[in-house]
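User: Quick sanity check before I run a bigger batch. Here is a single chain. Can you write out its predicted 3D structure?
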Amino acid sequence: MSETSLQFWPATDVGKVRTHNEDSFLIDKKLNLFVVCDGMGGHAAGDVASSMASRELRDALAADPEVSQVVSNQEVADTRDSILLAMESAVQKACAAVHQAGEDDPQKRGMGTTLDALLIVGHRGFIAHVGDSRIYLYRQGAVHQLTEDHSVVNELLRRGKLTRDQIDKVQYKNAVTRAVGVYRNVDPDVFDFDVLPGDRFLLCSDGLHGYFEEHELGRLFEEVPEGELATRLVALANERGGKDNITAVVVRVPEGRGGIDEIAQEVNLKLEILHRIPLFRFISYQELVRVLNITHVRSYQPGEVIVREGEEGEEFFVVLKGRVRVHSGENTLVELSPGQHFGEMALVDKSPRSASVTAVERSRVLTIRRRDFFALIRKEHAIATKLLWSFCGVLAQRLRTTSEQLAALKAGIVED
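Assistant: Done. Predicted structure follows.
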């Protein structure tokens, strides 16, 4: 492979209990597409579902002219939404094909499969996810689970009906709440994110990830040569019981000649700063990736106005680089530096801005528009709950501060 091509290492095994392997994986080097599926439905059905789903998804993406164009150019630009729609459409085509095959053959009726697909184009990654197989990201010494299990156990955990200590007592703990092919349609999780030089990914079935915690995966990513990691993980899963089929695909993004470039530095900066903001303090890394997708970055020259007093607000701002001045007329109220933010009330309220904001020096500012924020929380209920909780905390703190200021002002008036 060339210095700039993706590297990958797959491994799969039947495990210690099952008699045949219902897992499957697919790698398309031309598309930079990686797929792992875990079939269900018994002998001669689960393996058919998993292999058919991966092929149908690949064929649908390969036949999409827009996908072919961006893969050829390795430049996503303004086509992100189109690629996400193509990913979702490909999952639906795979789902319909598997379902129809089950309808046509009574012995395979009801068969289905999980599906995890990773498409890498330039500096963007696109994921389609159904079921409880997983995709992990290893970045700069830490492992992050990018997908969220569509499983009974995970749903009970999310609703607070189950603690992690009680998982082993759940009767149907391996049951999934979404699968490709069981019904004619399915609701996949489809999202995109920044890919950085040196990123490594692990796509795996639950027969593997069920034996590992994230911190141990991080240690293995660090200690085991990447060319041996997939086979090592499969071997360890077998040593720990091998109760299910086991599949792992490890993918590495090359470092590039210049190492971590400006794009990587800015992505890291955005993630770090967003996570420090009280509004986003409760959300996980995988959820923060979704938030990052609705952000935009703008540059301002010294003296350029960012926000005008009296105008209707529709954006929340975070200073990434430089320095800005918040002022009413010519009276400076405060100066903000990297990591500080303003205008968060515009995410929920259309009231006019109470002050103007002007760049003091050359600055880069991250923005979130209200309509994009609403679209995110309508789709991502878990994120919505955490953001609402954080927002209530921010408002409560502001009310306390205002009450203290009013009390101090009243005390001063009484003394006078």
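The domain at 7-257 is CATH 3.60.40.10 (Phosphatase 2c; domain 1).

User: Great, the batch can go ahead then.
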